[in-house]
């Protein structure tokens, strides 16, 4: 199946020179003053994990990999593996942690529903929910009179990731975080 370069998104998988390539970063659409518009892609080879940057014309069509997507529930993990159970057929699968981005692994929570992409029955990618709710473990104390102005302070979350949050938040507050870029969305009410 062909897909327009303008329609590509982070997480899409394309076939290029017989290799499966994951779009690792949001495609950058560029319209230079001279010359045609193009899309700059940061691609990651699924097998070798090497990253490359490539420019394609915005009018180009690329081969999108034919993937089968299934929903799974995250069960648990050990030092080397992640364990999931299918929501339809209840089959359990074990995936090697080293096959996945460490940043994504930090957002996995017990019981979380995720989607796993399969290419020719091999699991190659998993897709997290767009947001997760986490508790603040450490942050500077609230400054009296602080508002939700454009100033932010660092906060360590329960999963070990540090993000920038508004100054009125405290330790123990729960916040919604985007899994795509680890950014603060809102405080849980």
Q: Describe it for me?
A:
This protein is mainly β and 189 residues long. The chain has three domains: 2-64, SH3 type barrels (Roll); 68-127, Beta Barrel (OB fold (Dihydrolipoamide Acetyltransferase, E2P)), CATH 2.40.50; 131-187, Nucleic acid-binding proteins (OB fold (Dihydrolipoamide Acetyltransferase, E2P)). The protein has one helix at 102-105, and strands at 2-4, 13-16, 19-23, 28-30, 38-45, 51-57, 61-64, 68-77, 81-86, 92-96, 113-119, 122-127, 131-139, 153-157, 162-165, 174-178, 184-187. The strands form three sheets. Strands 1, 2, 3, 4, 5, 6 and 7 form a seven-stranded antiparallel sheet that branches. A five-stranded antiparallel sheet has the order 10-9-8-11-12, with no helix packed on it. Strands 15-14-13-16-17 form a five-stranded antiparallel sheet, with no helix packed on it. A hairpin with a 2-residue loop joins strand 2 and strand 3. It is flat and about 55 Å long. The termini are far apart. The model has no long low-confidence stretch (mean pLDDT 87).
Structural class, from helix and strand content?
mainly beta
Percent in helix: under 10%
From N to C, what is the helix and strand string? EEEEEEEEEEHEEEEEEE
How many domains make up the 3D coordinates?
A: 3
- Supply the CATH class of the largest domain: Mainly Beta
Largest sheet: 7 strands, antiparallel
CATH architecture descriptor name of the largest domain = Roll
Radius of gyration: 20 Å
Keywords: Cytoplasm, Elongation factor, Protein biosynthesis
GO biological process, one term: peptide biosynthetic process
GO molecular function: translation elongation factor activity
Domain Elongation factor P C-terminal: 132-187
